[in-house]
Amino acid sequence: MLRHEFQPGKLVAGLFLTATAVAFAGDAGGLWETPWFAVVPLVVGGLCLAGVTAALARGIRRRGGAEGGQR
Hints:
This protein is mostly helical. 75% of the residues lie in helices and 0% in strands. The model has no long low-confidence stretch (mean pLDDT 89).
């Protein structure tokens, strides 16, 4: 199996989009009521948090790579 680098921004985005899907699936199944506008804060907030997470992870990797090259 080929290994790839871990991308936490994609993980956060996927979790928020999955939470949105679960909220609407529960509404469709009749388990609870989900207002139609609930998708906006979940998706927008999740994508913003994913962007911050990805930028932070990139900064940490970039700084760690520079220090690793000096050894």
